[in-house]
Write a sequence for this structure.
């Protein structure tokens, strides 16, 4: 089995700052690989190395079977890149932007115009096609940027935080586009800081924190790896909460948490559920709500890193600053 | 789009052929020129500002400088052409920086195109803009009484010299473009450096008579003075070669320092 994307031990230093310290990942053809992590975790640096924009300090990567450093020109013929900042020329119209890319890729004038019209139609930009991109909304710019990365019908697509800063409707629209692409057989590497996004789109997920891969697997496998499921019980009477807590703790062997009368505990054995029901019945505790659900990716992230995805922002900002300054020094 | 995305349309190439590199450069030059269509302000920059400068300088300063507007034209027209070319050179850095900060450059670099094409395309587009500005300035000059005393070949020579100096000099703006995070900062640099540089030359004066010795020394040794004197020689007659050689030597010196610095800054930035 050959991988569409394969990276081994990628390291990148910007001056004193280590942006990546050994990132390895693989993506099979036609799948979506989600690279998940907070700001400053190294997602963008990883993407830029794989898209041949920067060279790794050490380590090795192939895209479509070609080395990203030694065969960068071949890699560039296979990939499309949509960055965190929409890489479109604001002074040009939507059509002109796409025609320019088509011409740069060696298409004839006629072919590039036809391709531009096709993509503008597909991304719902027909009405705005003749306006300079600087008049576009954020969502329209992202769509144009994505269209620009598809002009050459890439086999492998890098989407670096494609929905950051978008409203929920635009985000949903982009998700549908990504699903459509994989249906066409495109391999997608998608970085995101939204757990839901990775959960929704990715076949496989790599979790990156502080320049290192801290977990990888399918969304389900990751959830299973860190406890898998959460049992939640809400007694009808709040006064029963203590009894419920005692029973649940006894059976699961873990420490339950009670928030607003809802007792929850991570469990690994689904057979626990009937036992809990029996014991609650024996204790004569009426139950208003009883559920067994998979842990959210946020809980996964917490279990893996010891911090919630929201907590890291301040820290991450500092790292991002260091990364940017390192890049500019 | 339901066409298979699996197979590439063409077999992969191993490198960019010279013919393809020329096409890439042409496409990117087109891109830099077609922008003007959507940004009329740039046309103002390229046309109205030089016209305004010529008229203001000629009619306001002319009489006190040389006794009459007509006598001042041979001084001021070549001077403003030179100053304008230096300012236009700053737009190379300005455009480069907006491409870098807005992610456009990343897109170009992710494409299988010649690495030199983005910069080469910009330089070619800037050359067209330079030619346009010089044409406008000579036309306005002609209307108000400026006359070329040499031949068409010398005028072409003047343009080529101007262009060469502007391109060599614009490495300073490219370097600044690599170092700063906003295009506006490149513009500020342009004003802070080019304004004094062009005024501390013979671009707007006939002689350094009455200027303190130390300042006259600065003016005589300013590369802009050499450029302006060579331009006067090429448009009006008089010594050309000595001035042109010194001006180009300055330009080459600037390039030798700032081109490697720019490349280094670019690598660190990327």
């Amino acid at each position: 089995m050959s991988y569409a994307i394969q990276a081994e031990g990628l390291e990148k230093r910007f001056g004193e700052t280590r942006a990546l310290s050994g990132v390895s990942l693989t993506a099979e053809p036609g799948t979506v690989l989600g690279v998940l992590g907070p700001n400053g975790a190294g997602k963008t640096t990883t993407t830029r190395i794989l898209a041949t924009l920067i060279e790794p300090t050490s380590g090795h990567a192939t895209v479509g079977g070609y080395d990203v450093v030694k065969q960068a020109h071949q890699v560039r013929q296979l990939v499309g890149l949509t960055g965190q900042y929409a890489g479109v020329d604001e002074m040009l119209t939507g059509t002109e932007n796409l025609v320019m890319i088509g011409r740069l890729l060696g298409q004839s004038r006629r072919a590039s115009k036809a391709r531009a019209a096709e993509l503008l139609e597909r991304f719902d930009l027909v009405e705005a096609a003749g306006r300079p991109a600087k008049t576009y909304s954020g969502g329209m710019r992202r769509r144009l940027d994505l269209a620009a990365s598809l002009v050459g019908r890439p086999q492998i697509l890098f989407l670096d935080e494609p929905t950051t800063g978008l409203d929920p409707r635009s985000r949903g629209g982009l998700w549908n586009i990504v699903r459509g692409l994989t249906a066409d057989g495109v391999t997608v590497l998608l970085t995101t800081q939204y757990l839901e996004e990775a959960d929704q789109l990715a076949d496989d997920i790599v979790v990156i924190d502080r320049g290192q891969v801290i977990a990888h697997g399918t969304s389900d496998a990751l959830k299973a790896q860190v406890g898998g499921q959460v049992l939640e019980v809400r007694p009808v009477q709040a006064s029963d909460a203590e009894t419920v807590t005692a029973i649940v703790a006894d059976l699961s062997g873990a420490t339950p948490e009670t928030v607003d009368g809802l007792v929850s505990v991570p469990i690994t054995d689904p057979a626990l559920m009937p036992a809990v029901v029996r014991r609650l019945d024996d204790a004569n505790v009426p139950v208003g709500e009883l559920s067994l659900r998979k842990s959210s990716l946020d809980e996964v992230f917490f279990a893996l890193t010891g911090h919630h995805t929201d907590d890291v922002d301040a820290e991450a900002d500092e790292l991002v600053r260091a990364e940017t300054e390192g890049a500019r020094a | 789009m339901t066409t298979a995305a699996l197979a590439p349309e063409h077999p992969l190439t191993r490198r960019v052929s010279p013919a393809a590199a020329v096409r890439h450069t042409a496409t990117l030059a087109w891109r830099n020129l077609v922008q003007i269509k959507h940004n009329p302000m740039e046309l103002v920059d390229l046309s109205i500002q030089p016209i305004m400068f010529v008229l203001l300088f000629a009619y306001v300063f002319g009489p006190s400088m040389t006794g009459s507007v007509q006598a001042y034209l041979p001084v001021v027209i070549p001077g403003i052409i030179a100053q304008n070319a230096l300012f236009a050179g700053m737009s190379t850095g300005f455009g480069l920086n907006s491409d870098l900060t807005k992610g456009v450059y990343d897109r170009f670099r992710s494409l299988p195109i010649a690495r030199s094409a983005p910069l080469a395309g910009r330089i070619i587009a800037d050359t067209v803009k330079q030619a346009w500005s010089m044409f406008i300035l000579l036309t306005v000059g002609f209307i108000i009484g400026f006359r070329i005393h040499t031949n068409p070949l010398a005028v072409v020579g003047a343009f080529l010299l101007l262009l060469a100096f502007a391109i060599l000099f614009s490495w300073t703006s490219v370097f600044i473009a690599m170092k700063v995070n906003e295009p506006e900062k490149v513009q500020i640099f342009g004003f802070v450096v080019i304004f004094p540089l062009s005024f501390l030359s013979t671009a707007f004066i006939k002689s350094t008579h009455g200027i303190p010795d130390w300042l006259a020394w600065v003016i005589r040794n300013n590369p802009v003075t050499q450029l302006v004197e060579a331009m006067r020689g090429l448009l009006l007659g008089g010594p050309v070669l000595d001035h042109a050689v010194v001006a180009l030597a300055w330009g080459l010196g600037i390039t030798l320092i700032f081109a490697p610095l720019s490349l280094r800054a670019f690598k660190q930035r990327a």
